[in-house]
Design a protein that fits this description.
By secondary structure, the protein is an alpha+beta fold. The chain contains 2 helices and 10 strands.
């Protein structure tokens, strides 16, 4: 066995530990890499959450507009309750029935900040079907048709087209608010006769 001047074996010299500088450099580099991986993970999670919110808002809005459009086209009469509520007299094979579409701008209750549908007139106590949740802005618009031109209607008798404008907002604890603005096409009340 070969010995050095200090009396230690030669193999012992090659098995030294890391110096403090090497440990600090490795720790710093590992921390930077780990922070990059974690921030990428968090960013991907936030983007996935926002994408899911947009997808849910879009699907809710699409289903609500399809139902509203279908029933509005079959309506033979309309009662304009206010900018947030209309009652349609829908004609189908079973006859004529009243359906109310409305937006509840209150902050409490089962339909708070929701666009909903219920059978009957606006004063009906039937259970509402919530179509779109987390609505921040909402308005019904009505139009009349005069000699092929479109104008804003001022009463129920001259109303021939309806339009919905709404904005939904979803919030998350660690993400920015996801918003979705919807403006429907003008729905023609095909069965309704108008007077000008």
């Amino acid at each position: 066995m070969c010995r050095t001047k200090a009396g230690r074996p030669a193999a012992a010299r090659t098995r030294r530990g890391f110096t403090l500088v090497e440990v600090m450099a490795a720790s710093g580099l590992s921390s930077v890499v780990l922070m990059g991986v974690l921030s990428s993970f968090v960013l991907l999670g936030q983007n996935s959450y926002n994408a899911a919110n947009y997808s849910m808002m879009e699907a809710e809005s699409r289903r609500a507009l399809e139902l509203f459009t279908q029933e509005a086209r079959m309506a033979d009469n309309i009662t304009w309750n206010n900018n947030y509520s209309v009652t349609l007299s829908v004609v189908d094979v079973a006859g004529s029935s009243l359906v109310t579409y409305a937006y509840d701008n209150s902050t409490t209750g089962a339909t708070a900040r929701c666009f909903y549908r219920k059978t009957g007139a606006a004063t009906s106590t039937s259970t509402p079907l919530v179509l779109v949740r987390n609505v921040s802005d909402f308005a019904f618009r009505r139009y009349k048709i005069v000699n092929g031109s479109d104008y804003t209607a001022t009463n129920d008798l001259e109303t021939k087209q309806l339009q919905i404008a709404l904005r939904t907002v979803r919030t998350g604890a660690t993400t920015v608010n996801a918003t979705n603005a919807v403006l429907s096409a003008r729905v023609v009340l095909r069965n309704k006769s108008v007077s000008t």
